[in-house]
Amino acid sequence: MNALNEILSSVGRTGLVLVRALRYFPSVLCRSDARHDLLRQLYATGVRTLPVLTVVSFFTGMILALQVGLELRRFNQEIYLGAAVMLTLIREMAPFSCGICLAACVGSAIAAELGTMKVNDEIDALKVMGIPPARFLVAPRVLALVLMAPLLAFYCCILGTIGGGLVGNTQLGVDFSQYMTSAMSMAGEKDLFVGLLKALVFGLAIGVVSAKEGLDTSRGATGVGKATQRSVIVSFLSILVFGYMITRMCYR
Amino acid sequence: MDTIIEFKNVMKRFGEQTVLDGVTFAVERGEILAVVGPSGTGKSVTLKHIVGLLEPDAGEIVTVTPRIGYLFQSGALLAWLTVAENVALPLRETTDLSDAEIDRKVEAALASVELTGAAEKYPSEISGGMLKRAGLARAIVRDVDVVLYDEPTSGLDPVTSGKIHQLIVRLNRERGITSVLVTHDLPRALKIATRILLLKDGKAVVCLSPKEFVKSSEPEVKAFLAAMKGEVL
User: Fold this and answer.
1) Are B150 and B202 members of one domain?
2) Does B115 share its domain with B83?
3) For testing the chain A interface, which of B68, B72, B99, B138 should be mutated: the one with the most A CBs within 10 Å?
4) For residue B13, which of B43, B44, B45 has the smallest C-alpha distance?
5) Which of these three, B93, B108, B143, is where a domain ends?
6) Same structural domain for residues B221 and B117?
7) CA-wise closest residue to B81 among B65, B67, B68, B92
8) What are the residue ranges spanned by the domains of chain A?
9) pLDDT tens digits, residue range A65-87?
10) Structural domain of residue B195, as residue ranges?
């Protein structure tokens, strides 16, 4: 019963962080100081994630191409390799990989940063000065994730498709231009829209969950470690749950 | 004397632990009130109630002014801002003052805590004493009526502690800032405070002038003074 209460209370607090962050999004875009901070967060989000995401995307595409290509070859259908890789990436793997990288690289950093600020009384100091932490700290970080996640997912999709094409060409004998034609012919606007929507929702979930865990931190360095760990675990679970829900809603 | 902050029978519990158990006292305008007592008796919790960081479970807290500054134990400066940017933060975020006006106020606040030379330094580049003075500059930059000091000299050497105490007295005398000072440094508190409030087991035992405090026949005060003497020796 206690565990259930704790989970419900945690969900409630996460909802509260979400509502407060959304409420301050316009203020982040309108105020010049806040816009400057948003740019800093956009840069940090992109820079922190890009190296890992580049490697992850490329290898995801290569693995997909190899696994799918070997099966297609059994039926002499290698011409569909591009379509299979592109569709899998754009619908699922690109937003998923992007979400996982963002949770590990950016979400954990947000939880650790806000957690450290909490145990060092910096969050309380902001409240005493009349500066809502939701406006000053949470909203720019969450908005940066919301804006950056679809861009990074698109980047992941392009890079993964190229990686798959290289494997198809060098190991399965599929012509690269034929692979790209197949890839571009099957992926539709809806697939792109759903993929980017997923990435956007993942970005929002990671930002809100990480901020909530950071702001809930207590008990010094150990607490910061636990908050960071929880932020990654809950973000991963959120990515899986929201990923399934969006797929279920958009593809019936 | 008029009362600027008043605690009326304030109770606060954290889980099973009662931290404040019917605390009643008043802070008079213009005074320096030192809050002393053994660790874990609710001194910092008392300060947090004054600025609304904590809400009492029962009882009432009346604050006449909203213009209250708070110096946290660690200084609580934001690591990615310079000292000057930290001091300017409350003005930039909560007022419509022009950049020139903010710069003027920040300069004046830094000058009053003798920290003008460190304006462009980051918190990681300055000493513990400077961190506290920068925190104090940020607390007073908004023309406050009251400053709450949470262990302003903890972790500092005696010379720097002395300077911080001089600063508290100077701000009180020159700008009429009412001060509530949570401290373990009883000898210095006896020198600079107008009154001493002893908290023990979540209760306000006495609130007396330094002279009355050292002569008090209250058993808790005697025990506290004896314990402090033992600590000093």
Assistant:
1) yes
2) yes
3) B72
4) B45
5) B143
6) no
7) B92
8) 33-250
9) 999 999 988 888 888 999 999 99
10) 3-67+145-232
Chain segment A88-120, per-residue pLDDT in tens: 999 999 999 999 999 999 999 999 999 999 999
Q: Please list the residues that pair with B179 across neighbouring strands.
A: B32, B147
Q: What is the CATH number of the domain that holds B151?
A: 3.40.50.300
Instruction: Check: CB of residue B111 under 8 Å from CB of residue B129.
Output: no
For residues B59 and B152, membership in a common domain is answered with yes
Last residue of a domain, one of B143, B158, B187: B143
Identify whether the C-beta of residue B195 lies closer than 8 Å to the C-beta of residue B180.
Answer: no
Of A33, A122, A128, the CB nearest to B51: A128
pTM of the full structure? 0.88
Mutate to test the interface with B, among A28, A33, A43, A129 (most CBs of B within 10 A): A129
Q: Which of residues 172-201 of A touch B (CB under 8 A)?
A: none
- Listing DSSP states for B141-191 in one string gives TT--SEEEEESTTTT--HHHHHHHHHHHHHHHHHH--EEEEE-S-HHHHHH
Please give the ipTM for the structure prediction. Answer: 0.89
